[in-house]
Amino acid sequence: MNFTPLPYKGRGWGLGLYWTQPRSAIAHGLLLPRFNSMDMDKPFLYDRDFYGWTQQQAKALEQRLVMELDWQHLQEEIQALGRQEYRELVSRLSVLLGHLLKWEYQPEQRCRSWFLTIREQRRAIQRHLRQNPSLKSRIEEALLDGFEAGVDLALRETNLPLRTFPEHCPYLFDDAIADNFLCDTRQDWEG
User: Fold this and answer.
1) Which of 19, 23, 109, 168 is deepest in the core (most CB within 10 A)?
2) Is the pLDDT reported for residue 16 higher than 70?
3) Which of 117, 88, 91 lies closest to 103 in space, CA to CA?
4) Do residue 60 and residue 147 come from a single domain?
């Protein structure tokens, strides 16, 4: 085994040793950070050319070049991806809940467009949760967030006063996404 002194980023030489065969070191759990001239370029590339940074990071991951990874920005981007999945759930819920409110509180205006929007959002939410099952742990929070935006959508599209709508979501999540709840989307529109 070949060991060399381990330089730590920005702090001179470290006290540890660095295994010169990185893949073997990774396999044995002995990988330690080392100084790399790319470390200085990673944040700069991230800020200057995000697409280029993503390609560089993907290549480093594919080749398991751990020392080439921009750990700080990778962490931030992965967390942002999770937030994006939650925001998509809330967005779809807000459209669904807004249309359910319109369907319930303005029945004389029901139309094929509302019907199809309810159908589409139910299916999209179910698909999104199949693809991201851990989001189910945030359903109640998403329902609250989605309801606020859903009321705003209903207000904007119906011209009904705010007092028309309930303060809190009157629907359970499982009911709202059920094909036969309030607006039966199991069959075709029958206006």
Assistant:
1) 19
2) no
3) 117
4) no
Residue span of the structural domain in which 108 resides: 78-176
Q: Are 45 and 53 in contact (CB under 8 A)?
A: yes
- Residue 37 confidence (pLDDT) above 90: no
* Chain segment 153-175, per-residue pLDDT in tens: 999 999 899 999 999 999 999 99
- Count the Cβ atoms, other than its own, within 10 Å of residue 50: 12
Q: Which two tokens stand for residue 65?
A: 């070049």
Q: Are residues 59 and 102 in the same domain?
A: no
Q: What is the pLDDT of residues 69-125, one digit of tens each?
A: 899 999 998 888 889 999 999 999 999 999 999 999 999 999 999 999 999 999 999
The tally of domains found in the chain comes to 3
- Closest by alpha carbon to 117, among 104, 132, 130, 98? 98
Residues 105 and 42 in one domain: no
Q: Where are the beta strands (DSSP E) in 36-83?
A: none
Is residue 20 domain-shared with residue 82, that is, in the same domain?
A: no
b/e string for 2-33 if b means 16 or more Cβ within 10 A? Answer: eeeebbeeeeeebeeebbeebeebeeeeebeb
Give a yes or no: residue 162 inside a domain: yes
